[in-house]
Amino acid sequence: MFFSIIIPLYNRPQEIKELLESLTQQTYTSFEVLVVEDGSKHDAKAIVEGFKNQLDIHYFYKENAGQGFARNYGFERAKGDYFIFFDSDCIIPHNYLELLRDHFYQEYLDAYGGPDEAHSSFTAVQKAISYGMTSFLTTGGIRSKQKNAGGKFHPRSFNMGISREVWEKTGGFKLTRMGEDMDLSIRIHQMGFKIALVPEAKVYHKRRTSFKQFWKQIHSFGRTRVDLFLRYPDTLKAVHLLPVAFTAFLILVFILNLFSISLAALGNLLLLLYIMLIFFDSLFKNKSLNVAFLSIIASFIQLTAYGFGFVQDYCKRVLLKQDINNQY
């Protein structure tokens, strides 16, 4: 099987080098790499060309239109039997493609997604963010599960692949920015293709480098869920409302404490228990007091930023029927 790895890139030349270095170490070598620069002001052409003696690599520059359409641009130029796309802030384990090929020998999939985790080289903040996005103590825990409270498994574009047939039948991405991967996954399911999680096909995903960036990203995820609800009403599940419920609970506890209402003690106790669960679970997994502490912040951001984003767009687009142009 010949794989085409497609990487959209926008003003992140500092990230692509580490990703490409990890691809040079793959134990399965039947693949090409297509880097699609999406109108970047700070391009990575020189970095990419530095790998021409180590990889079958191709660099393209196009006008900015978002990562979804950048991937489509790569699909149209790819030679592979199967298209894989990574985010530029990922590091790929050396046996990723070999494990994927072996999985396809046992069980072929028309589309797949893989999990992510933190690499040992990540900063404490990045490890904490990874914890918040993957822990069962937050809604991030459903993202790398085949069967979950969110319904069918939907791959995410930081670690996802589709067959050439799927691309030809679906036309690739119809949305260009936030939610484009979920939209594509939903359409793949609707067309009856076989789509599943490949647990062994993991990547190390840096995500955001600061809590401020992380808040902005997760807030847009909450807004995106409303957009998907309007497009596909049956995809909204109870689990998607948990961040809203948690955010409302935090506000309620704050009000109870502000006015010294007796129920405040119960609310404070529940919050303390939740905080302790996060701290000790992260400490067990990361073996770091610093990361464990930061994981509390990351988990609260993961829930509240999503909750506020969801409520914001639900009120505007569903309750008030405003036709707004989502700029994520």
TrEMBL record:
Taxonomy, superkingdom: Bacteria
GO molecular function: transferase activity
Keywords: Membrane, Transferase, Transmembrane, Transmembrane helix
Glycosyltransferase 2-like domain mapped to chain residues: 4-165
Lineage summary: Bacteria, Pseudomonadati, Bacteroidota, Sphingobacteriia, Sphingobacteriales
InterPro entries for this protein: Glyco_trans_2-like, Glycosyltransf_2, Nucleotide-diphossugar_trans
Residue spans crossing the bilayer: 238-259, 265-284, 291-311
Originating organism: Pedobacter puniceum
Record-given protein name: Glycosyltransferase
